[in-house]
Amino acid sequence: MILRFIVALMCLFSSFAYSAVFKSEHTALLKQWLSGIYRSTNDVIQGREINIDLNISPIWQDRIDGEWLYMESRITHSSNKPFRQRIVQLVATPNGLIRLYSYSIPRASDFAGAYYTPQLLTSLTQSQLSISNNCELLIELKVTYTFVGETDPDSCITHRTNTPLMTTFFAVSKVNISFLDGGYDKFGKLVPGRLDVPITFLKIEDYDVSKYAK
What we know:
Layout: H1 2-22, H2 25-34, E1 36-40, E2 43-45, E3 48-50, E4 52-59, E5 67-75, E6 84-92, E7 98-104, E8 130-131, E9 137-141, E10 147-151, E11 165-172, E12 176-184, E13 190-192, E14 199-206, H3 209-212
Antiparallel strand pairs: 1-4, 1-14, 2-3, 4-5, 5-6, 6-7, 7-8, 7-9, 9-10, 10-11, 11-12, 12-13, 12-14
């Protein structure tokens, strides 16, 4: 009995430590700010300026290995299925930064509309996910009360000769999300990505747990 008690106590302390490392007040706040419905202000696809709807909802909230979110993007007012779906994991680190991992989903079209119908994700498990390009974002909360991040330069190596290291700049506030793609050449010089200005998404509706999480 004593041995079982000691083992149980060690497991309990281990789970507390695990939770403390992978979740924090900052990951919870970033999850809250990210969750909701957004619309882009300046996106361009194949040379055409169009609006994109971005829907982000929290999932797997009982897990202790970080905060998890489902993201899907679709052309505004289009009846087509989303053109991008991802699962995102936010992980707190001991130095106060947040790591953002992006995962692709198998048979993603089966889960289209999961923002409004979370039950669609019931059958999805973490073991089915694939890390997307292994590009991790390192994020911190600035004194301006904005989360700002950049791709970890050691995690996003490409085979392009002109830009062997790709990067993404990322900013989140209570009301918007901004992305800017770029890269570093072989001399370590920053070169622009596909846009000269950030893609900005304005939040038009917060995620309503009572409405969508039933």
